[in-house]
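Re-running SET domain-containing protein 4-like to confirm reproducibility after the cluster update. Everything else is unchanged from the original entry.
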Amino acid sequence: MTKRGRSWRDRRRKAKQKEEGVLPASLMSRDDNVELMRWLRKNGFQETHLVLTDFPDTGRGVMATRNLKAGDCIVSLPENLLITTATVVNSHLGQFIKNWKPPLTPKQVLSLYLIAEKSRGKDSFWYPYLQTLPTSYTTPSYFSTAEVDALPPAVREATLQHRRVLQGSYKSLKASLHTLEPLFPDWKAVFTFKSYRWAWATVYTRSVYKRGPGWEFLDPSDPDVYALAPFLDMLNHSPSVQTDTDFNVNSKCYEVKTETACRKYSQVFINYDPYDNVRLLMEYGFVIPHNPHSVVTFTVDDLVACLAADRNDMSTSKNLLQKKRELLSQENLTEDLSCSAEGLSWRLQTALQVLCMDHDSICNWWIVLGQTSQNPDLWSAARLVAQRLISKKLEQHCSITQIAEKVLDPGSSLIGVFILMLLREDLHILEHSLKDLKSQTDDSIDK
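Result of re-run:
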């Protein structure tokens, strides 16, 4: 029998992938990835049917080397390979940070530890893992001024708030950094804001949920539930898969079980949670196309402004309007007012109907809204206000998007790509919602 060589086997594998309709991917042979896997295995990580891979659509990710079925445990990471607050407390840093004032939060503790270990280079136990981490991120603290200015107002404010939290976090611990001089004589050069921004983003974007012991010396306002998990953090997010992730107290391993089958040579995903693209961008630094959880949000003031557009509408009288505002607040109908690709949310529809009620209806609002069939006159009025609301927001977003397309250069910045994707998705949602509302109006006229 003729002996088949490696080249023949590679060609056969690629042909099989093509037949199965699998996206082409190149196995990553970078030294840092090779060293990571060697280090993981040396420290108790069990072999899996997953390999680190570079995918054309998502970049670095994880590929299955065999078919995976629902219920399979795809990752089992030993506790000694997790970076938690317990790791830090039992390290060289532990005795120094316990008495800091104000007390540190778990995120601050992990961030300091990452900086400390990174500065130790190859002397750090975590060196093979640290070498695989990004050197920068696409989270809000890395946005340029032009990129911040290109965002919609609500997202821009969320970005600025993210930055304020980061700056406040660094400022609160900066006064205590000098106590680390016995460990780091050049502490000023090590624990800079730039290095802290990197470490903070690493913790924010790559942590998994694992409840810690709740150290008494930590700030209780921030729960101790963060852990950095080498290799596991290479799994990318998809809203279309279901996974079960948790720490197994019996095996002492952090485990990931897939509830969604995955074909051989395909990328393996996990589901972070049902997040819209704004939250994904703020917390993880990316957006995904056609995200089913994406929404465009509104404020009560947005609704009221569109209601007041009709000066002859008695529902906008000052006293009645104040009563409606109080009712919306009382019934928790002032938040999460949104529309999606599926139309207006129940909360937005309800808030609009409350705002369109006359004096008699508002006194019995729970009866009116609780009727088996929708009040056609009330919903007709609410639908007209909704059309004004969506039209106004659509006009604003068109203007914002046009400016962003002129200012941002997606060819030189991945952040610019994500912002433009976010804006265009909002436009799609608004256009679809407006079309749906107009269709409903036409149908009601025909009837």
